[in-house]
Design a protein that fits this description.
The chain is an alpha/beta fold and 406 residues long. The protein is built from 15 helices and 14 strands. Strand 10 and strand 11 form a beta hairpin.
Length: 406
């Protein structure tokens, strides 16, 4: 068995997954949160047939605890402890490689890349474009390379899938020299998810990826939409940072830049104030005081005006991007929904597609509202556009790319 360890290191969290890449099965996964705070929740889940105690059940075993974890080095030590105590044994399933999620690869990294000292340096330099993400990703890389020094480590960039964007799509209409000097352009994010979903959709339909035009809505707390032509990203909603585009849990998405100038002049908001406003106090939270779509839907059901407006604004933005991307593609074969909201909120899917009959979209109510798991069709048999729900698996996509590179 060839196992690949996938690491997603956040500013205060460490998410990991051990994947049998030959059979594409997850052996174990875990999440360590609130690193550096007083108490850090630790969760470790193990597939039943690889549990350390050899007690096989039909359900995954889950182990939870809390402790003080000072930094990412401590977090890696705790992760190794979880494997030792609860399984699977890393002695029996030693990782042949470690794959790392890195949010921003700028225009330098077009594909997943073996990590060496120079790659680490470039990831650190690119932190200016993703100050909340790249430093945390790099901390995870350093800790992992210390913990697993004898295997290849591979950086899988959120931005790499979008390196196929044409200049007309990635160029902002500002002073060209200033943009070049400070690397201001559209980069796009959620690339591993958009790639996984578009490939899975083609496989599900038994179609050649190269012949399909697709739109993928990745709707979670962070949200983005990508137009994909023949397996290549040709337009995407997130830009220089993950802030642009759709309405999100706490992020504004698109906004008139002059609104920020106005708030600075009239409300006295500093650059840091504006950054916090747009990233943590906007989106659904800014409109309705709640960032979780489940709460928005519940409020809408009982006539909460703020929740209803938040939902309407959210849907309005989805429809606007859907229409624009259909125009950019010259028509679309497949539209897919993924991530927490996209996979679970039938009302969001139905309303987002409700005005797209002109493009050949027809949603089947029963299919859309059925509580089923796995990839599934929610459009009618007569619909000219196939609409799917495709559960994303970024960890598996990272493992696949790591296997290709190692």
């Amino acid at each position: 068995m060839s196992a690949i360890l996938v690491i997603n290191s956040g500013s205060s969290s460490l998410k990991y997954s051990l994947i049998d890449i030959e059979h594409e099965n997850e052996l174990a996964s875990g999440l360590i949160e609130r690193i550096g705070q007083e108490l850090s929740p630790v969760g470790h889940r193990v597939r039943p047939d690889v549990r350390a105690d050899a007690v096989v059940t039909m359900l995954d075993a889950e182990y939870r605890s809390e402790r003080r974890i000072a930094d990412h080095d401590d977090a890696f030590a705790v992760m190794l402890e979880q494997f030792a105590e609860h399984g699977p044994s890393l002695a029996q399933h030693p990782p042949v490689a470690v794959g790392h999620r890195v949010v921003h690869g700028g225009a330098r990294f077009f594909a997943s890349t073996l990590i060496d000292a120079d790659v680490e340096r470039q990831i650190e330099e690119l932190a200016v474009l993703a100050p909340l993400h790249n430093p945390a990703n790099l901390a995870g890389i350093l800790a992992a390379r210390a913990a697993f020094p004898g295997v290849p480590h591979v950086a899988v960039f959120d931005t790499a899938f979008h390196q196929t964007l044409p200049p007309a799509a990635y160029t902002y209409a500002i002073d060209a020299g200033l943009a070049r000097e400070h690397r201001v352009r559209r980069y796009g994010f959620h690339g591993t998810s958009h790639q996984f979903v578009s490939e899975s959709a083609a496989a599900f339909l038994g179609r050649d990826l190269g012949e399909l035009t697709q739109i993928v809505f990745h709707l979670g707390n962070g949200a983005s939409v990508t137009a994909i032509d023949g397996g290549r990203s040709v337009e995407t909603s997130m830009g220089l940072t993950p802030l642009e585009g759709l309405v999100m849990g706490t992020r504004s998405g698109d906004i008139d830049p002059a609104a920020l100038v106005h708030l600075s002049r009239r409300a006295g908001l500093s650059i840091d104030d504006l950054d916090a406003l747009l990233n943590t106090r906007s989106g659904l939270k800014g409109l309705a005081g709640r960032s979780d779509m489940r709460d928005i839907l519940a409020g809408r059901e009982v006539g909460d005006e703020a929740a209803t407006l938040a939902f309407d604004v959210y849907i309005h933005r989805l429809r606007a991007y859907a229409g624009a991307y259909i125009a950019q593609l010259g028509g679309v074969d497949v539209i897919s929904f993924t991530a927490g909201v996209g996979e679970n909120a039938a009302a969001v899917r139905a309303e987002a597609m409700a005005t797209l009959g002109f493009a050949g979209v027809e949603i089947d109510h029963d299919r859309n509202t059925a509580r089923e798991r796995g990839i599934r069709r929610i459009s009618t048999d007569a619909s000219r556009v196939t609409v799917l729900v495709v559960p994303t698996n970024e960890e598996l996509q990272i493992a696949r790319q790591t296997e290709q590179v190692r």
